[in-house]
UniProtKB/TrEMBL annotation, chain B:
It comes from the Bacteria. This is Transcription regulator PadR N-terminal domain-containing protein. InterPro entries: Tscrpt_reg_PadR_N, WH-like_DNA-bd_sf, WH_DNA-bd_sf. Transmembrane segments: none annotated. Residues 12-86 form the Transcription regulator PadR N-terminal domain. It comes from candidate division WOR-1 bacterium DG_54_3. Gene3D superfamilies: Winged helix-like DNA-binding domain superfamily/Winged helix DNA-binding domain.
Length: 864, 112
């Protein structure tokens, strides 16, 4: 005997194992193996294998006959029955398929949305190793996170930690609204201009169309622009070598053209200028201001946790011994969903992981509502199928076969629904995109994703919605069914009720949620902000040339009687506020919110002076050493008597000054944040914004006057303006968007629930036709019957409210926790939504019940 | 009485001939020897299965053997019912054959 190990051909053996029962497998493969071995030993391995496979092939015809053909035959029968049932009960089939496909379509769109949300920054080759530095500060009992960092941080990190391979600093602080960029005296205003270290191409993956990533930003006067910008400024001309002027101060030569930035990133640039050409030199070489965004690239061997732990001595060394400060790294992939309340965030499109969860929950809710419809309708209609089950059982069907049949039916339904749902997604994706502010397209990746999701959804829905009906229907005893004609439909009644209740509970939750979201947004928009935001036109002054002409421009505007006042400031409420390191008397160095204003800022915007006085032209010293703080600052700095307190200001040779007044707290940020300490500092003539208070009448004429004056004073500069109150609306755009999406899905959920209720009620009433006939003969009134019929369902809906309320209260309370200023959830919201749900469900049921109650008893008694 | 098919008849007979050593491989070898034809395993398993369902043969578990890759043998044994069926069949055969005129058979070379 050869020592070689003899094995059966693996694939063939697997084939046997799959198609034979255990005992058969042992016998047959044993027999085969015996001959196989002897063939191997006597002849050759090849010959044995050949023989083995030939043996298997001869079994094939019979195998197909046995296992597949007969199954197919049954399958054909099942399919036939399923389609016949669909045809006979068209409304039932329609409700199921329509409900399911709407549910699946919602699910698909939401999953596409979530996928997009989770895929941010992934396109960077090193995305898992890029981190952003965050400075944490302990304020008022909680940690606040600052995205901004000092310019010295990046180089220090690289020098002191071997883990840090490279760093890049970006400068485009949020207090700069837009940059003015000009080419040969043609001006544009640009948002996304960053001053960046040349290492940016090492840290991020930014493909260049023209230029060498190693050298493009090396030269201190160089700039890289995106493809779109190249076309905007130069059309078809070659942009390389052209010189752009930024803010009329910095000249930069174009050395490279980058591909357009993908949409799924927080860092969206149009211009990357050399770091060294950054014009705000006061922000450099200090640890005291947080004006930059620093990103580091870590070595593969190290992870963030290890480095985070080592950062506290680093902090102590450079920031001084500060117990209320921390430094940590944030993975770049987390930025989109996990930095909602971070200060100085540069991304405008950041979302929140909470929304991802909320949307996922909604998707599951809507899909389960549709599944419940299917379950309810198929069990309610069980009486119709009961006879079939009985006959099948008598003919010899075992329970397993019946379970398979009904499961198969639900799979068929979900398959059909899946086809429709993908059509729905194609149809409504553009609408969904505008709603959610996404730009999801049908590319190959997404189609594969949709296919995969649909396959999963078909299986889940098939099993979920088919399990109960199939177990329920297959459990019928043939004798009982065949003897008595009806009454099996009453079985499972309680279960159906619970399911209906569940559906409406979900609907109630969504409705209450929608109401509360809208109430909160309304509250934010209508609340007194602490100043008068109506009728204020704001013009950003974006270049030093324009700023230089501010005073004369202002005087020209004041000639018009419709213009009440004009003020200049470094920012306006609702736009982001810059931070400056400062040292208030009796406190410590730390960056605080600060705004440069002029004499007219407070009167123009209608803020109230609580103590002391406003900046005044009568006090020439105000220009140099006067500050006004808000009430929050007084509290925060721990001052009892604020007037006359000293504040030292970082930069500008650490200028000193004294507090001359206290302004009443006003909301200069969104309602998400508490009003923070704010220091107003007097600097006439260098404001970035001109706020113009106009009289309410004849606003169009006033606007055209302002526009003419602008053109007169600043030829070549585009006239760009906004109304101050619009600026506030923008702060809640993400909430509004969520509210909108919420509203649509709520509507869909309610719609699908009602669809199911409609089907269920029509079925139940059909069964009670005789009962109603008899009641009427005995003298029941139409209204009495309607009430009787509606009672059943209204009980479910009422219970749904009772159970839904605490859940939604808990969830919405948490959502409102995002806001520092929030509404209290009122009982009336709940009552109103309950009324809506009850009214809608009653309406759904009443159509059927009125029909049943008003039919002539003669007809209903003759029924069957 | 159920009439046995040709294959079933041959298989039953070879099981009887093999006495206590009738299992898949040996049955197949026996049949191949007797008929001078190659039979695939598939063509004997199916009739065997039918015979078992009709109650004409019995399956007996043997011991696992190394030359079968550690799988056990399954021996077959003809049941009394099976024997009865064979006798029945033999009788029918004889009856059917006896009426055929001798000339016809001689023309075909007299092979029985």
């Amino acid at each position: 005997m050869r020592r070689e190990k003899v094995v059966l051909p693996r694939l063939a053996n697997l084939f046997l194992r799959l198609f034979l029962s255990r005992e058969d497998y042992l016998e047959k493969s044993g027999d085969l193996e015996e001959v196989y071995r002897s063939l191997w030993e006597e002849h050759s391995r090849l010959r044995a294998r050949f023989w083995f496979c030939a043996q298997l092939l001869t079994t094939l015809p019979r195998l197909i006959m046995n296992s597949i053909f007969w199954r197919l035959e049954m399958m054909k029968n099942y399919l036939k029955i399923a389609f016949r049932n669909m045809q006979r009960h068209k409304s039932f089939a329609f409700i199921n398929i329509f409900g399911l496909s709407v549910g699946m379509a919602c699910c698909l769109m939401i999953l596409l949305f979530v996928r997009d949300e989770l895929g941010f920054e992934k396109f960077h080759a090193n995305s898992s190793r890029i981190y952003r530095t965050i400075v944490d500060e302990y304020v008022d009992g909680k940690w606040e996170h600052n995205v901004g960092s000092p310019d010295l941080l990046g180089p220090a990190l690289e020098n002191e930690y071997p883990e840090v391979i490279s760093y890049v600093r970006l400068f485009n602080p949020s207090w700069i609204d837009k940059w003015s960029v000009s080419y040969e005296k043609k001006y544009f205003y640009e948002d996304n201009l960053f001053f960046a270290d040349p290492t940016i191409f090492k840290v991020f993956s930014i493909p260049l169309i023209l230029g060498d990533p190693e050298t493009v930003l090396m030269d201190p006067t160089s700039i890289v622009i995106t493809d779109t910008m190249a076309q905007k400024y130069f059309g078809k001309e070659n942009p390389i070598g052209k010189v752009l002027t930024i803010n009329d101060a910095v000249e930069a030569k174009i050395t490279g053209v980058a591909k357009n930035v993908p949409r799924n990133t927080h860092f969206r640039f149009d211009f990357l200028a050399s770091f060294e050409s950054m014009p705000f030199k006061w922000a450099l070489n200090t640890w005291r201001t947080l004006q930059f965004h620093t990103y580091v690239l870590l070595d593969k061997k190290y992870n963030q946790d290890q480095l985070d732990k080592k950062l506290s001595p680093f902090l102590e060394k450079h920031f001084g011994n500060q117990t209320n400060m921390k430094l940590h790294l944030q993975p770049i992939e987390d930025i989109h969903l996990h930095s909602r309340s971070y200060n100085q965030e540069m991304a405008v499109n950041n979302s929140d992981i909470a929304y991802v969860y909320i949307f996922l929950t909604i998707a599951i809710f809507i899909l389960s509502i549709a599944c419940i419809n299917f379950m309810n309708l198929s069990t309610a209609r069980s009486a119709n199928r009961a006879k079939e089950v009985g006959v099948r059982k008598v003919v010899g069907a075992i329970r397993g076969q019946l379970i398979k049949q009904f499961l198969g039916e639900s799979f068929l339904f979900s398959l059909i629904a899946a086809v429709f749902s993908s059509l729905l997604v194609m149809l409504f994706l553009p609408t969904f995109n505008t709603l959610s502010g996404k730009d999801i397209v049908f590319n190959a990746q997404n189609i594969v994703f949709i296919g995969g999701v649909l396959a999963c959804v078909i299986i889940i829905v098939g099993i979920l919605s088919g399990s109960y009906p199939s177990l329920f229907l297959s459990s019928f005893q043939p004798i009982k069914i065949l003897k008595s004609s009806l009454s099996e439909g009453q079985k499972g009644f309680l279960f159906r009720r619970v399911l209906v209740m569940l559906q409406f509970m979900i609907s109630v939750c969504l409705i209450v949620g929608t109401f509360i979201v809208y109430e909160q947004i309304g509250y934010c928009l209508n609340q007194n902000l602490g100043f008068d935001e109506e009728h204020v036109v704001v013009i950003p002054l974006r270049s030093s040339l324009v700023q230089a002409k501010y005073e004369s421009f202002r005087n020209a505007l004041l000639q018009n009687h419709a213009i009440v006042n004009v003020a200049g400031s470094s920012t306006v409420p609702g736009r982001s506020v810059g931070e400056r390191g400062m040292f208030p008397e009796g406190n410590k160095w730390y960056p605080r919110n600060s705004v440069f204003v002029d004499f007219d800022f407070i009167p123009t915007l209608g803020m109230e002076i609580k103590k002391g006085r406003n900046f005044s032209r009568d006090f020439p010293t105000d220009v140099d050493d006067a500050y006004i703080v808000n009430e929050a600052a007084v509290k925060n700095f721990g001052w009892k008597e604020p007037l006359g307190k000293k504040i030292i200001w970082a930069g500008d040779k650490n200028k000193k000054g004294f507090v001359i007044g206290v302004v009443k707290d006003f909301h200069y940020k969104s309602f998400h944040q508490k009003i923070e300490p704010l220091v107003l500092h007097m600097t006439p003539g260098i404001g970035s914004y001109a706020s113009i208070r106009t009289k309410s009448e004849n606003i169009i004429k006033t606007m055209s006057f302002i526009k003419n004056k602008w053109a007169e004073f600043n030829p070549g500069h585009p006239f760009d303006y906004f109304f101050l109150n619009d600026q506030y609306d923008k702060l809640y755009r993400s909430e509004e968007k969520m509210g909108q999406v919420f509203r649509y899905f709520t509507f869909l959920a309610l719609f699908i629930s009602c669809l199911g209720l409609f089907g269920l009620s029509s079925y139940v009433l059909e069964q009670r036709t005789k009962e109603i006939g008899i009641r009427k003969v005995l003298g029941a009134s139409v209204s009495g019957i309607i009430i009787m019929l509606s009672k059943e369902f209204s009980k479910c809906v009422l219970l749904a409210n009772v159970f839904g309320w605490p859940i939604v209260y808990f969830l919405m309370n948490r959502w409102l926790g995002n806001f520092a200023y929030r509404i209290n959830i009122s009982f009336w919201t709940f009552l109103l939504s309950a009324l809506i749900v009850i009214a809608i469900s009653m309406l759904t049921v009443s159509y059927q019940s009125i029909k049943a109650a008003t039919t002539n008893p003669v007809n209903s008694l003759r029924y069957e | 009485m159920k009439i046995l098919s040709r294959a079933e008849e041959i298989i039953l007979l070879s099981i009887l001939k093999l006495e206590s050593d009738a299992y898949g491989v040996s049955i197949r070898e026996q049949i191949c020897k007797d008929t001078g034809d190659t039979w695939s395993f598939a063509s004997i398993y199916t009739p065997l299965d039918k015979l078992r369902k009709k109650g004409f043969v019995k399956k007996i578990k043997g011991n696992p053997l190394p030359e079968r890759g550690g799988k056990r043998k399954f021996f077959y044994e003809v049941t009394p019912d099976g024997k009865k069926a064979l006798i029945e069949l033999y009788k029918t055969h004889r009856k059917v054959w006896s009426d055929v005129p001798r000339i016809e058979l001689e023309f075909n070379g007299g092979s029985k």
